[in-house]
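Hi U.,

Before I forget, here's the chain from the pilot set. I'm dumping it here mostly so it's searchable later in email.
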Amino acid sequence: MGGDRHGIGTAPAIGIELSAVIVAVIDDAPQVLTVSTPYPDLRALPLGALDPEAHPTLERGLRGWVTELTGLKLGYVEQLYTFGDRGRDPAVETPDRRLVSISYLALSSAVSLAGPGNAAWRDWYAFFPWEDWRTGRPNMIRAEILPVLDRWAGEATDSLERDHRRDRVAMAFGGGRLSWDPDRVLDRYELLYEANAVSESRRVAPLQGGGPVFGQEMARDHRRVLATAISRLRGKLTYRPVVFELISDSFTLLQLQRTVETLAGIRLHKQNFRRLVERGGLVEPTGARETRTGGRPAEHYRFRRKVLSERPAPGVGLPERKT
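Structure:
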């Protein structure tokens, strides 16, 4: 009868932790909550160990320690992904111990922080500067990123692999007949990781002679976790009303548009966006008007919650971008 190297009735040790990608929009910037690490320039996502006795459910455990560390009471929360690849944190892993993180995406309209967690908001475009197209295509893509990826593709050992790599670059960053897809955040990060063009990949395979790296580094694999969350959130904008979790109960249509643009990283046509939102029955007027603009008072709206029972996919959508 066969067995395994751990013996009958035993199993390798698995450390389970709960981590959170907590997103807010502050002054037209997409912010993610981060905590400090022993390294001054290296931020991490909030995380805590699962307590089997104190946490009756994973989500309640997450909500509890986030409030304890940061003072935030989370609203919208959904499970994101489970990250358990070997090598996530060699400092705590051993051949018989694997570190597994059950990650959540949380959205918050509150921005004030308290508690002992040394938490701070950080603009997610500091970690992914190539993702912000609100003022046009970032120059770094053409001038810096694509040359690195072109060299990486050319280093493949055979022509089939070279073609495959070039196709991946075109799909991720746009090329030929393929346009930029805001949702492919994780694909783009993974490409840069494979090409040794982000600091995290060089922890595993240091690159002789250096070379450029792009975006601010994060602890462990937390930039991959964040990329996964941004991809998820951008995708959900088109079919779920998640954007309303990130703004106040009363807002103007311009404020709503700016929030969507902030998250998607693109500028949208004003009239097309308003037409899409109004025809979709997503908002209703409150009767109040914005008087601080100095021009014509802007009407205030609120999220029309009845739409949740009227349509299976009530997202704001992403109409044709402004060019």
